[in-house]
Amino acid sequence: MSKKKNKSGESPADSLANMRALITRFFQLTLERQFAEAERMLERLRARMRKNEWNRGYIQALNGIILTQRSGDERYAFLANPILDDEEAIEKNRRDFLNYVKSDIHAEYDRGFFSAWADCLRTTLKAREKAKQAG
């Protein structure tokens, strides 16, 4: 029995794993303030994601994340360095976003948007953990 393949010759599981890797890399680049490479990664993600409301919200959040990091505007204190130094605050915000994702009250677009933020915070926590182990 053969596995189903998509247009690029990947199985659905390979495609999902590849998308997750691209998304994680996008967050890493953004947090490292490597914006040109993060923008290229965002364009790759935009081209590969199916066109639906959930993905539209997710991509819009990615766009907002990179703009927020790039601007350094204090109105977006959520991603400000002091906030990123507080692991409890990061985890609390991540849980809040995941609750929004699970809620049927929110539209698909909103759930995709909040899911991207939760993924960003998960990547942030993992990067902090890795830095602790290395340091």
What does it look like?
The protein is mainly α. It has one domain. Helix 2 packs antiparallel against helix 3.
Secondary structure topology:
Blueprint lengths: L11 H20 L3 H14 L4 H19 L9 H4 L2 H16 L5 H27 L1
Helix pairs in contact: 1-2, 1-6, 2-3, 3-6, 5-6
Please state the CA-atom Rg, rounded to the nearest Å. Answer: 16 Å
Order of helices and strands: HHHHHH
- Calculate the mean pLDDT score and round it: 83
Number of helices: 6
Model regions low in confidence, pLDDT < 50 over at least 5 residues: none
Sheet having the most strands: none
Total beta strands: 0
What key attributes describe this structure?
135 residues, single chain, 6 helices
Outline:
This protein has 135 residues and is mainly alpha-helical. The chain has 6 helices and no strands.
